[in-house]
Each structure stands twice: as structure tokens, then as C-alpha cells.
Write a structure and sequence with these properties.
heterodimer, A: alpha+beta, 20 helices, 9 strands, 15% strand, B: 185 residues, mainly alpha, 2 domains
Chain lengths: 501, 185
């Protein structure tokens, strides 16, 4: 066996070795390979871990697998529809993109696409130089007559092609704009002899058709991605709009134009209006009548134009300020007795940690059978004070709530025999009836509440306390950190050394 | 244009893609259901988790390189999230659940290591639970009764090499699964 082959670990040999099925010589060889090649050693460790897990698993009785371990038909149907939707979506989008590409390619290679563009370019050129044909240069070489029409042969400087005929009537010479609008087809024909027979109108119609086809394809591809919910929502919104802006409203009475100094005039409307070219109709003729509807229209415009980069930037600048304001307002206005998580958003001190417990309310609602006056919402509403002696709260036997490090309430426990920073805990009750929680060695938190409503929280390690008779349901808690909660539910650090003094 | 649209290659690709998704569903629906049920102990909740895992899988199947590992990992994560969300661990022996873990696990003070170990154990137990009875019996004879291949061969009536082959296969499959699922580093 070559060195390269030897480096590649042989899982079969390793498994046999780990299961004590190898001969002594083979075992020695495997050990040597593992010592020499890290790959072998890694593979051995990996397999060893799996075998260890298997051994552990085999010690426990195997669970019987219940019948009916499959998804119900409704769920399967739902999943099938998702697969089909995905497949169709991909297929459709693929087809649409192919189709759109083909139409686009066809359009670009067609003279009917470029013809009008060339005509427009020429028209623009002429518009830029309106006197091009009005004042013939001295170098003009010839002027010919054909019937009633005057043909001007352009100068060498103006056109390279000497045989380019330009029809300019006497009346048209004075007004270049008329010339531009009326002579585009002639120009077109002159520029490209193949297009002489094609009417510009027809070309434009074809282009329009092509563009409509292209846009409808794009639109369909976008629509194909919409979910049923989105379609329903859009339909509802359209219906609501239709109700609000009926034709009767639109044409009943004219609406005065929006004054420039109006409060509703804002950056959004400005930018929107600035982006829109002047319309031939005045706003009075089309806008809805009532001020309410006017406001709706403006807000709609503002909403639509909020995607404008300028507005988006402004919004981004304002967002943190608004958020801060709203949070402060929420804190100020929160109902009495409710302990909201928004306190976490307002904590100013870095060292202050806010307890995020979703279940405190339910815990507070549970009253201990033996003592534990857990504070009512009334006490909380009056504001919390720093406990006069927080160490006494910890040392005095009584109830407290057990939390995970994440602030999740687990249940009520009885604290007793507190010495130094340690105390014993016994489970009293779970927060959720019938739902058990698993305690594993690690960090937990205790929350003590005094009859006057002061709250302290201790964080530390929890461990099972075993006696000679084994475990009897008592746990030992070692406090490592302590805080008291102020009226905003913000933690204020307490010196943990005080417990050990 | 229509030729390109309905080209057999694209349609076949689509069909084969759908078939593959269907195959994964057929293959893993039941095992994942069992796995989710073993974690949650609630059939309806398990169904919800498995359905969600498949929905996610179908939506991003093309990005998934190891569907089996991905589906197991997603189901496991969904179950853990569900348990955390509902703040509970529901298992059979309730009083036992209140106790700490076995003495063997007491050294594992690091919660992350502890969680990983717990997940790995659960995954292996699940893998054993869905094995055919004869293979499970082989594992039992090997790991519990500590019999050699030869002794197992006598007891099971299989040849020694067949015993070795079957055990190797189970162990290797499980090792690969655990590795791809990130349960053993």
C-alpha cells in the first residue's frame, strides 16, 4: 500500500478496531497509523464519538413508534401545491424572460424600430439648427426645379451626400417647426431608401404594438409572482379607491388648485410634480372635489413618491428620531401595572440590563399558598423603591421566581437556609400548569419581591443538592450578581459582596 | 418561440426537479415526523414542524446541498424554537424531568456543549428507533451484551462477515449523518 493510500483512513478497519474485533497485530498497526497520520486519528475520534453515542443510546429502552406518523392529507396537499407553484413559477418566469428577450431582439433588429428614431434624431438636429436651409451659403452649388416644388441641394459643409433631396416649400421656410413636423416622413424616406414606401404612422403603430406586447409580457411575469393574498389585497384597495374616487365625484364640482403654502404641500408632492411634465388639462378639471378627498389624493401622491431616493433619505434621517419619540411616548403612556418589554428600549445605562420576561404577569397573578405577597399592579404603579435591605430579602425564607438567563420565568421556588451568597431552593409550582421545565446545571436567576413592592434579582449558578439518601428535590443556588429593579424595570447593580460579609 | 418555450429539456428538468422533491418527501416524511414527535411529544405540533421544514425546503431546494441533513437540522431547530417559544420541555416522566441530568452529564457546565450533546444523543436515539428490528437487535447484541461478531453470528444465524458488514453500514451511515448535520465536529 502506498503512503498516499495509507494516509486515507480505512473506516472499516477503524470500526473493527474500536469494536475490539481486530487482531492484536491489526490493532497495533491501526494505533501506529493513528499516531503517524492525523487523518487516521481524526477519523478514529470521529467514529469513537458515534460509537459512544450508540452505546449510550442502546442502554435506554427503544421507544415504540406510534402509528400514523405522517402528515395529514391537507398538509400534503398544501405542500404539493407549493411544489407545483414553485415549478410553475420558475417555468413561467423562464418562458416570459425568453419571450421578452426574443421580442426585444426582433424589435432591435427591425428597421421599423430604428426608422422613427432616425427621423426623430434628424428632427432634433434640425430643431437645433432651424436656419440650416433658410440661408443658403455662398458655397451652394446648385438649385433645381421640379414641377411646383423647390429642391435645394445642400451645401458640402452641411451634408456629405450631394444627392439628398430636401423639399422646402416657400411657406415652410419661414417656420422651421412646421417644417420639422411635416417633413419627418420625407426625411426618413430620404435617409433610408428602403423605408420610402413605409408610412411613418404605420411604423409607429407597429412599434406601439411591439412595445405593448413587451410590456404586457413583463406585466404578466410580475403578476405571476404575486400570491393570491396580494391579488386580493390589491383588488380590495382598487375597489376602495373606486368607491372613493367615483366619476360622479370627479366631475361634480371643480376643486381649487392646491395652494403653494398649503400645509399638505410637502417635499413629496414637490418632487412628484417636478417630475411630471406640464399636463394640457388643469388640475381643477380632474381632481376630486372635497378637501378630504384632496387630502387623500395628496397623501397617495406622497406615499407613491416616498420611494423617491431623496425622500427615502429624509425618511431614514427621521426614523431614529421618530422611533425614540414613540418609545418614550409608549413608556409614558403605558397602562399601570403592565410591565412592558419596551423598557429595554429606553435603558440608558450600559450596565443596566433589563429583564425581558414574557411571563411575569402570569407569575404575579399566582399567589403562593403559604405566604408570598406578590405585589399587585397598584404597588407597581406607585413606583418601586430601592429595597431598604436587599440582603435581608435574600436571607429571609420565602418564595421567589426562578428564571432562565434569558429572562424566561420557569416557576415559583421556595428559598431557605440562605448563608452567605448561597441558599437552598425547592420547587413550589410551575408557571404553566401541566408544563414541566427541565433544570440543567448552569446559570439561573431569582427574583424576590418584598411586600412593599421592591424587587431584587440575583443571578448565579444552580446545582442539585444531594444528601446521603440521594437527591431529595432541593437545589443550591449560588448568587454571583445582584440588581434591584427601578420603576422603569431597569436593573440597578447591587454589591454582591454584601452577601458574604 | 413556442419551440423554445416547450423545449423537452426544460420541461423534463422541471419534472425531474419536482420528482426529486417528491422523492425526498416520500423518503423523509415519516422519519422526520417521528423525530419531531420524539422531541415535542405532540403529534399535531410535530406535523406543524415537519410541514414547515418541507415548505422551507421546497422553496429553496436548489440551494440545499444535503437535503437529508438540511431537513433534519431544520426540523430540529424548528422544534427547539417551538419549545423555547412555549417555554417548556414536555417529556414522559415529569418528575424525572425536574431532576438534573445523569451524573455522566454533570461535568458539562457549558450550556452550549450540553445542548449539543443532548441533541446528538437525541438524534442517535431517533436513528436507532427507526432502524429495522433485525439491525437494532444486532446493535443491542454488540453494545449491550458486548458480544463479538462471532457470537452475534451464532445467535443471529448470520455469517460473521454479514454481521460485520451490517454493523459497519449502520455505524458509517450514522457517522456521516451526524457529521453532515453538524452534531459531531
Amino acid at each position: 500500500m502506498s503512503g498516499k493510500e495509507l494516509r486515507k483512513p480505512d473506516d472499516g478497519r477503524l470500526i473493527d478496531y474500536l469494536l475490539n474485533e481486530s487482531s492484536p497485530e491489526e490493532s497495533l498497526e491501526i494505533e501506529r497509523l493513528c499516531a503517524e497520520h492525523s487523518e487516521w486519528n481524526d477519523a478514529k475520534e470521529h467514529l469513537g464519538r458515534t460509537l459512544g453515542l450508540l452505546e449510550d443510546a442502546c442502554k435506554q429502552p427503544f421507544e415504540k413508534i406510534e402509528k400514523d406518523m405522517s402528515l395529514d392529507p391537507d398538509r400534503i396537499k398544501n405542500l404539493k401545491s407549493i411544489v407545483e407553484e414553485n415549478g410553475d413559477g420558475e417555468k413561467k418566469s423562464e418562458n416570459y424572460s425568453q419571450e421578452a428577450e426574443l421580442v426585444q431582439r426582433k424589435l432591435l433588429s427591425s428597421p421599423i424600430f430604428w426608422g422613427p428614431l432616425a427621423a426623430a434624431a434628424c428632427a432634433a438636429f434640425l430643431a437645433g439648427y432651424p436656419n440650416l436651409f433658410d440661408e443658403p451659403e455662398a458655397e451652394e452649388v446648385a438649385v433645381t426645379h421640379e414641377g411646383d416644388k423647390d429642391f435645394v441641394t445642400p451645401s458640402k459643409d452641411n451634408f456629405q451626400s450631394a444627392d439628398l433631396p430636401q423639399e422646402i416649400g416657400e411657406s415652410k421656410k419661414s417656420d422651421s417647426s412646421v417644417f420639422i413636423s411635416q417633413s419627418s416622413s420625407d426625411l426618413n424616406a430620404a435617409l433610408n431608401p428602403e423605408l420610402k414606401k413605409v408610412e411613418v404612422d404605420k411604423i409607429m403603430t407597429d412599434v406601439d404594438d411591439q412595445l405593448i406586447a413587451l410590456s404586457s409580457l413583463e406585466a404578466e411575469s410580475i403578476l405571476s409572482d404575486r400570491t393570491q393574498k396580494e391579488v386580493v389585497a390589491i383588488n380590495d384597495s382598487v375597489e376602495a379607491d373606486a368607491r372613493e374616487f367615483s366619476l360622479v365625484d370627479a366631475f361634480s364640482t371643480p376643486v381649487p388648485p392646491v395652494p403653494a403654502s398649503s400645509e399638505e404641500k410637502n417635499l413629496a408632492t414637490d418632487s412628484f410634480l417636478a417630475a411630471v411634465p406640464p399636463a394640457p388639462l388643469k388640475t381643477e378639471q380632474v381632481l376630486p372635489t372635497s378637501p378630504k378627498l384632496k387630502g387623500q389624493m395628496l397623501s397617495k401622491i406622497a406615499y407613491q413618491s416616498s420611494t423617491h431616493p431623496l425622500i427615502a433619505d429624509k425618511e431614514a434621517e427621521l426614523a431614529p428620531i421618530r422611533e425614540k419619540e414613540s418609545v418614550e411616548e409608549l413608556v409614558r403612556k403605558r397602562p399601570k401595572g403592565v410591565e412592558p418589554e419596551i423598557a429595554s428600549l429606553t435603558a440608558p445605562e450600559q450596565n443596566d440590563i433589563v429583564l425581558k420576561s414574557r411571563s411575569r404577569k402570569s407569575a404575579v397573578a399566582q399567589k403562593g399558598p403559604w405566604n408570598a405577597p406578590i405585589p399587585s399592579s397598584g404597588i407597581l404603579a406607585n413606583g418601586r423603591a430601592k429595597p431598604s435591605s436587599w440582603t435581608a430579602m435574600f436571607r429571609q425564607p420565602g418564595p421567589c421566581l426562578l428564571f432562565t438567563e434569558d429572562g424566561e420565568a420557569l416557576g415559583l421556588v421556595e428559598s431557605s437556609e440562605a448563608v452567605g451568597n448561597k441558599c437552598n431552593l425547592r420547587r413550589v409550582r410551575d408557571i404553566r400548569q401541566g408544563k414541566r421545565f427541565t433544570l440543567s446545571p448552569g446559570a439561573f436567576q431569582l427574583r424576590y419581591t418584598s411586600p412593599r413592592g421592591s424587587v431584587i434579582i440575583l443571578s448565579g449558578e444552580l446545582d442539585k443538592k444531594t444528601t446521603e439518601r440521594g437527591f431529595e428535590g432541593t437545589y443550591e443556588f449560588t448568587a454571583e450578581k445582584a440588581w434591584w429593579l427601578d420603576q422603569n424595570e431597569v436593573r440597578k447593580a447591587l454589591p454582591i459582596e454584601e452577601l458574604t460579609r | 418561440m413556442s419551440e423554445e418555450q416547450n423545449s423537452p429539456s426544460s420541461t423534463e428538468q422541471m419534472l425531474s426537479h419536482e420528482n426529486k422533491l417528491g422523492e425526498w418527501f416520500e423518503k423523509l416524511e415519516k422519519p422526520l415526523m417521528i423525530y419531531a414527535y420524539q422531541t415535542l411529544r405532540d403529534k399535531e405540533e410535530a406535523r406543524d414542524m415537519v410541514q414547515e421544514a418541507f415548505v422551507r425546503f421546497f422553496k429553496k431546494a436548489k440551494e440545499v446541498k444535503q437535503p437529508k441533513a438540511w431537513l433534519y437540522r431544520t426540523t430540529r431547530n424548528l422544534c427547539i424554537s417551538h419549545i423555547r417559544k412555549h417555554g417548556r420541555v414536555q417529556t414522559i416522566g415529569e418528575e424525572e424531568q425536574m431532576d438534573f441530568l445523569d451524573s455522566s452529564e454533570r461535568d458539562e457546565k457549558n450550556p452550549a456543549v450540553h445542548l449539543e450533546s443532548k441533541e446528538a444523543k437525541g438524534r442517535v436515539r431517533h436513528a436507532l428507533s427507526i432502524l429495522p428490528d433485525d439491525l437494532r437487535e444486532l446493535l443491542h447484541l454488540k453494545f449491550e451484551e458486548k458480544l463479538s461478531y462471532k457470537e452475534i453470528s451464532v445467535k443471529s444465524g448470520l455469517s460473521v462477515s454479514n454481521v460485520g458488514y451490517k454493523l459497519h453500514k449502520v455505524i458509517m451511515d450514522l457517522t456521516i449523518d451526524m457529521k453532515t448535520e453538524g452534531l459531531t465536529s
